[in-house]
Specification:
With about 270 residues, the chain is an alpha/beta fold. It folds into three domains: about 50 residues, no CATH class; about 140 residues, Rossmann fold, CATH 3.40.50.2300; about 55 residues, Arc Repressor Mutant, subunit A (Orthogonal Bundle). It is built from twelve helices and seven strands. The protein has a five-stranded parallel beta sheet with strand order 4-3-5-6-7, sandwiched between helices. Strand 1 and strand 2 form a beta hairpin.
C-alpha cells in the first residue's frame, strides 16, 4: 500500500492514487501544458503569430529636410502594421555611418536637401552597401534626376504626391526586390531608353542563362519570381545575379536594368 497526498500536499493515508492524485505530487506540482492541451495550443499559436509579425517588420530610415513632412512620414509608417521608422534625418551628411549603425531594410530618400543631397547620399551608400533598398521620394520628375538616381543604384523613384496607402505598397515592393516607380516617372524612363542608340553593344560575356535572368529583371521579376519561372533555387538566382553584377560592373538591380537598356544587351 502507498501513502496518498491530498490537494494541500498532506499525506492522507493508504490507497492507490486516483485521477486527481496523478495531477499532484509531493512537491505540489501545478498542472502543465500536458494537462491542458488546449492551453498549450493557444500558447503555440500566440508565439507563431508574434514570430510571424516580427519577421514581416520592414525597418526604414528617412532622409527629408522638411520637418513637417519628415514627421508626417514617420507617423504614417510607424502607424502602419509591419513597418517601423528607425530614425529620420534632414540631410545625408552622415548617411554612411547611419545606414551602417541602423542596418535598415529600406531608405526613403529625398533629393533636394541642404548639405549632402539625396543623389550624393545615394552614391555614398552604394560605395559601401549594395543590399539596402533605396527608394527616392521627391517632387522632381525631370529626366536628369530620374536618370542619375537609377544610374547610381536607386531601387525605385516615387513622387511625393503619391497617396499614403500606395506609398506603403511601394515600400513593400522595393523590399521584396521590385523597382517601384510613379507612373509618370516610369513613362519618362521608357522614353529615355527608347531614344538611346539602338545599336547593340557588347554582351559583357554573359551566358545564355545569365541573359535570361537579366531579361526577367528587366521585366520586373523579383528573385522569388525568377526562381519559379526558371525552375531553380533562389540561391541559384542570387548566384546568377551576382555574376551579372560583376560582369556589368554594377551594384544594384536598377543599375543592371539601366545598363541592359542602354547597351542593348538583351
Amino acid at each position: 500500500m502507498q501513502d496518498r497526498v491530498d490537494s494541500a500536499g498532506k499525506i492522507t493515508g493508504d490507497g492507490p492514487p486516483t485521477t486527481d492524485d496523478r495531477r499532484l505530487t509531493t512537491d505540489n506540482r501545478r498542472p502543465t501544458n500536458e494537462d491542458h492541451p488546449v492551453m498549450w495550443l493557444a500558447q503555440i499559436k500566440e508565439a507563431c503569430i508574434f514570430d510571424q509579425n516580427e519577421s514581416k517588420m520592414t525597418k526604414l530610415l528617412i532622409y527629408e529636410d522638411n520637418p513637417q513632412l519628415r514627421e508626417g512620414l514617420t507617423m504614417l509608417i510607424n502607424g502602419s502594421d509591419g513597418f517601423e521608422v528607425l530614425a529620420a534625418y534632414k540631410n545625408c551628411d552622415n548617411v554612411v555611418d547611419e545606414v551602417e549603425a541602423f542596418n535598415p531594410d529600406v531608405v526613403l530618400m529625398d533629393i533636394d536637401m541642404p548639405g549632402v543631397n539625396g543623389i550624393e547620399g545615394l552614391k555614398k551608400i552604394r560605395l559601401v552597401n549594395t543590399e539596402v533598398k533605396i527608394l527616392m521620394l521627391t517632387v522632381f520628375d525631370d529626366n536628369k534626376n530620374v536618370f542619375q538616381a537609377i544610374s547610381n543604384g536607386a531601387n525605385g523613384y516615387i513622387l511625393k504626391k503619391t497617396p499614403p496607402a500606395r506609398l506603403l505598397e511601394y515600400i513593400s515592393e522595393a523590399q521584396s526586390g521590385g523597382a517601384p516607380m510613379t507612373a509618370s516617372v516610369a513613362t519618362q524612363v521608357l522614353k529615355m531608353f527608347s531614344s538611346m542608340n539602338s545599336e547593340k553593344g557588347e554582351d559583357y560575356n554573359l551566358s545564355d542563362r545569365e541573359k535570361q535572368v537579366l531579361q526577367l529583371l528587366v521585366d520586373g521579376y523579383s528573385y522569388k519570381m525568377i526562381a519559379a519561372e526558371m525552375y531553380i533555387a533562389i540561391d541559384t538566382v542570387r548566384s546568377h545575379i551576382k555574376k551579372i553584377y560583376e560582369k556589368l560592373h554594377v551594384n544594384s538591380k536598377s543599375e543592371a536594368v539601366a545598363k541592359a537598356f542602354k547597351d542593348r544587351i538583351i
